[in-house]
Amino acid sequence: MKMAKTFLERAFELARSGQCASFKDLRRTLKAERYLASEIDQLKGLSLRRQLLDPWLSIRVLESYRSGQKKPPSHVGETAALLWCD
Questions:
Q1: How is 12-79 classified by DSSP, letter by letter?
Q2: Using CA of residue 55, residue 72, residue 27, residue 25, what is the dihedral sign?
């Protein structure tokens, strides 16, 4: 029998996958996957948001390299701040 992923495992998996374009999308996806509202509320913490943002930014930088750009776009940090805010 396969064990279900914990809320945090799934949140980090989604952040690393790049499936969610924003923090709001991440919360919406977790809710649709029937994680508890009390768990999803943990995403309001700044420390956890920063930890989730790191893998998400890594994906964006890799995508920029794969698209042929010589260096990551300078606006990645600004974009991340905007996209991952409520």
A1: HHHHHHT--SSHHHHHHHHHHTT--HHHHGGGGSHHHHHHHHHHHHHHHHHHHHHTT-SS--TTHHHH
A2: negative
Q: What is the mean pLDDT of residues 61-76?
A: 63
Q: Which residue is listed with tokens 């992923």? A: 5
For residues 52 and 44, give the distance between their C-alpha atoms in angstroms, rounded to a whole number.
Answer: 12
pLDDT 10s digits, 10-38: 999 998 888 887 888 999 999 999 999 99
Backbone angles phi, psi at 26, to 5 degrees: -60, -50
pTM: 0.69
Q: What is the CA angle 21-26-29, rounded to 5?
A: 115
How far is residue 65's CA from residue 63's CA, in Å, rounded to a whole number? 5
